[in-house]
Design brief:
5-stranded mixed β-sheet; mainly alpha; 57% helix; two-stranded antiparallel ribbon; disordered N terminus
Amino acid sequence: MAVVTDSKARAVHDPGSSSPAARLGWLLPALVLVLFALKPLGPLKDPDAYWHVVAGEHLVQTGQFVLDDPFGAGTEKVWILNQWLPEVLMHWAHAAYGLPGVAWLLCLGSLLVGVTVYAACRRRSSALVSALVLAVTFVALSGSLSPRPQLVTFALAAVTTSAWLLTREDRRARWWLVPLSWLWACSHGMWFVGPVIGGLVVVGMLLERRVSVREAARLALVPVLSVAVAALTPVGPRLFTSPFQVSGVTSMISEWQPPGLTNAGLLAALLLLAVVVAAQMMRGGGEWTVALLTVLALVLAVTWSRTTGLSAVVMAPLAAAAIQQVTRQTDPSPSRRERLAVLVSGVVSLLLAAVLSPTTAAFPGIGPNGLDAALARLPAGTVVCNDQAVGGWLMLRHAGLRPAMDTRVELYTGERIRAYLGFIAAKPGWETYPQLVGCTFAVLPTDAAVVAAMQAGRGWEVVVKAGGFVLLRA
């Protein structure tokens, strides 16, 4: 009798392969991907989504990538459109189908993030393990699956991490990462994460003695060229300075603060980190590449709320490989039915999103929608003191008005943001803010502290109230 040696044949005789989990393992990734596709479905609640659409429209109309802001009344810095590619896509979707088009595009982007993470994990683990890691990654990302260009960073970080782990195995330079980095640099300000991942893997390979110094230098050309081509985007070399525009105001931005210890996304990311660290301890360490990527992921997880999900994306393929090794799951290549299930789940999810989005996303999920008629009667060019969260809404829905504040925080100085915060909280001296920005009308939540102060004999009168917002006139 012939000896069974191949992995697929071993799976037949593996007692564990007859368990319900093993029999249904091929279906689980498809089910998790449905969550990625449909979780974001609904009205657009992210304040940034609205001004991203406006940015794409302005770029299509003017071709300006670096410009003085024509929309806000309080901005003081140059506007660098370093996320122009997805912004143009968002504008096209909005021009064709309105807000439901943007909502559907979000579902597509979220699904692509899930598919790239799944592919990175599946290269290194069984369908069952891949689905498990994908589900944990979904929890880590769930707070970040919003209509922003950051979805591009999540997807391309998964692709880049997987590609460099393959380079670690076969020592082949993957030059296609260079043009991929150019696309990334046209899409999101955190494009530099790709070259950082590449650099860490090259250093790790050198420390592990997988390559000679000469081979490491050749592989290092990939991240070096990836940085170089970023200067060749339409934004030009100013792309390198654009991330630093926000550096002076990060202390006042919630998403640039460390996540809370009870944050579900942080706990999910730390779980993946713990799996990788535990596996390394069991193996006795010595894998410098894994250690360097783990340190990077730890920094991303605990330092800023907005990068916690990115930490999980980087760790996902390493965690999948670690669980695969410990559990010794059978690891055949994806079967035809598994590939078909993934394809069908993606297509059906997007079709369902297309059917539902005209109803679920027909109206904005934020903003003073009840004041639309009153705002439409204001003269073009009117400066409006507004709640920061509705600045982008005003830019898109009432293009003739000039909001005094919005969530493009990199365009404001720290002094201007502090003045705004003092105004909203009705702190002593709040009266100077309307004079500073030149607003003659205000659109604010009815429960904002400053609303009562403005009505208490301060020269402001209520025009109309609706939907939790009030329009006041000086």
